C-alpha cells in the first residue's frame, strides 16, 4: 500500500453539510415535546439517511424509554393515591364513630377540617371549620381573653408548651353537660409549635358518679358513727337557733355547712374523743 493510500484510509471521511431544514425540524419537535405533558409523539423526517437517520432513531428510542418511565411513575402515583385514600377513609371512619372529640387548631384558634364528628354534637355546630375555639367554648368576655392569651403563649416559645397548655381551662360546661379538654402541641418541620391537638371527653357521668360516691361515703360514715352524727345534728340545731336570735350573714354562713363537712366533722370528733 502506498503512503498516500495509508493516509486516506486512516482519515475519516468528511461529513457533508448539515441541512438547516433538518435542524429546524428537530428543534421544533423538541420544543413541542417539552411543552406537552405526554410523550406519545415521535420524530419523523422523510428521506432521512446516514447521520440524520441515526439522530432520529436515537431520539425516538430515548422518548420510548422516557415514556415507559413516565408510565411506571404514573402507575405508582395512582397506587399511592389509592392507598392514601383508603387510609384517609379509615381514619375518617374512626373519627366519625368515636365518642371523644378530636380537633386541631392553628395559631389564630381556627379549627381545621379534620375534626371528629363528636365535636359537632359537643358544640352544637355542624361545621367547625374556621371557627375559633374560644367562641365554640362559649366563654365569657374575661374568660375568652384569658384563654386567648394563654393559647397565644403556646406558640410564642417563651415557656415550655406543656406549661402553656396546662394554663388553659381543663373543664367546661355546655348545655348542662361537663367536658374535660386537654391540649397537646404539634410541632412543625422547623421544630416550633404549628398546631394544637385537643381531646374533649364527656365527664358528665363521671362527675355524677363522683358526687354519688361522696354522698355514699358520708352516709356510710353517718351509719358507722351514728352517735357522733346525733351530736353534730344537735350542735347544728343549736347554731341555727342562735342565728335566729342574732341574725347576721357571718353567723348564717357558719351554719350553712356543705355535706362534705359531715365527714370532716365526724373525723374531728373521733380525734377529740
How many separate domains? Answer: 3
Radius of gyration: 41 Å
How much of the polypeptide forms β-strand, as a percent range?
Answer: 5-15%
User: Can you say what the CATH homologous superfamily of the largest domain is?
Assistant: PAS domain
Can you tell me the CATH topology of the largest domain?
A: Beta-Lactamase
Termini separation? 137 Å
Please give a handful of descriptors for the protein shown:
single chain; alpha+beta; Beta-Lactamase; rod-shaped
Textual characterization of the structure:
The chain has 273 residues and is of the alpha+beta class. It has 3 domains: 19-84; 101-202, PAS domain (Beta-Lactamase, 2-Layer Sandwich); 207-272, no CATH class. The protein has 11 helices and 4 strands; from the N terminus they run αααβααααβββαααα. It has a 4-stranded antiparallel β-sheet. α9 packs antiparallel against α10. The longest helix has 45 residues, at 51-95. The protein is rod-shaped and about 125 Å long.
What secondary-structure arrangement, pairings included, does this model have?
Elements: H1 3-10, H2 20-35, H3 51-95, E1 101-105, H4 117-123, H5 133-136, H6 141-156, H7 161-166, E2 171-174, E3 177-187, E4 193-202, H8 204-224, H9 226-245, H10 249-255, H11 261-272
Antiparallel strand pairs: 1-4, 2-3, 3-4
What would you say about this model in short?
With 273 residues, the protein is of the alpha+beta class.
Amino acid at each position: 500500500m502506498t503512503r498516500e493510500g495509508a493516509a486516506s484510509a486512516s482519515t475519516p471521511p468528511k461529513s457533508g453539510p448539515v441541512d438547516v431544514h433538518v435542524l429546524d425540524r428537530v428543534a421544533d419537535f423538541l420544543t413541542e415535546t417539552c411543552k406537552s405533558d405526554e410523550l406519545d409523539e415521535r420524530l419523523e423526517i422523510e428521506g432521512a439517511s446516514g447521520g440524520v437517520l441515526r439522530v432520529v432513531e436515537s431520539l425516538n428510542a430515548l422518548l420510548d424509554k422516557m415514556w415507559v418511565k413516565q408510565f411506571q411513575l404514573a402507575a405508582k402515583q395512582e397506587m399511592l393515591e389509592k392507598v392514601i385514600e383508603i387510609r384517609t377513609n379509615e381514619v375518617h371512619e374512626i373519627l366519625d364513630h368515636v365518642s371523644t372529640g378530636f380537633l386541631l387548631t392553628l395559631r389564630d384558634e381556627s379549627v381545621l377540617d379534620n375534626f371528629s364528628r363528636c365535636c359537632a354534637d359537643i358544640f352544637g355546630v355542624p361545621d367547625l371549620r374556621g371557627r375559633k375555639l374560644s367562641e365554640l367554648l362559649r366563654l365569657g368576655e374575661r374568660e375568652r381573653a384569658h384563654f386567648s392569651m394563654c393559647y397565644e403563649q403556646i406558640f410564642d416559645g417563651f415557656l415550655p408548651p406543656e406549661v402553656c397548655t396546662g394554663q388553659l381551662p381543663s373543664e367546661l360546661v355546655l348545655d348542662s353537660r361537663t367536658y374535660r379538654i386537654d391540649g397537646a402541641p404539634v410541632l412543625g418541620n422547623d421544630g416550633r409549635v404549628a398546631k394544637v391537638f385537643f381531646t374533649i371527653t364527656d365527664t358528665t357521668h363521671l362527675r355524677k358518679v363522683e358526687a354519688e360516691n361522696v354522698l355514699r361515703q358520708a352516709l356510710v360514715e353517718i351509719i358507722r358513727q351514728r352517735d357522733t352524727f346525733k351530736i353534730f345534728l344537735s350542735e347544728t340545731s343549736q347554731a341555727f337557733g342562735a342565728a335566729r336570735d342574732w341574725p347576721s350573714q357571718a353567723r348564717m354562713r357558719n351554719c350553712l355547712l356543705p355535706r362534705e363537712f359531715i365527714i370532716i366533722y365526724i373525723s374531728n370528733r373521733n380525734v377529740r374523743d
